[in-house]
Known about the structure:
By secondary structure, the chain is mainly alpha-helical.
Amino acid sequence: MRFTIGNDSSDGLDAIDGDTLLEFADEAADHLETIEQDLLRYGRSLNGPTALNPTLRCLHSLKGSAGYVSLVDLQELCHQCEDILSRVVGRPSSEAQRRVDLVLDAIPAIRARLAEVRRCCNTGQRVPRANAGSEKSLADLKAAFGTAR
Length: 149
């Protein structure tokens, strides 16, 4: 079954195969679990220049995959998280922790967006172009640190 991302067929987005969307959601959930566990484990002990490399790779993969399936809101949210975390090294521990906490705060919005994709695929509904949770989380990150791009 093919699904369209967006509110109507005139938004210019291609139809995406439902199996592709479900595979994306599964892989994204795995990446998200790794990201969350890494950030919780690093906590306040972020001190090496490569400490966040695995986390950044997961975010980068998630961002790219979201773009591939036309989930631009999720792609932008992951890009903002990636940018914020890439600037942690060399920051005072309180600033580093603030950045880590903000990215951790974005994880529920990403999870909700993935759940929405699964629900739409499983019920044959159109996957919305964006959702309020991911857009709010993105706005919160931009308000805290400015636009990543």
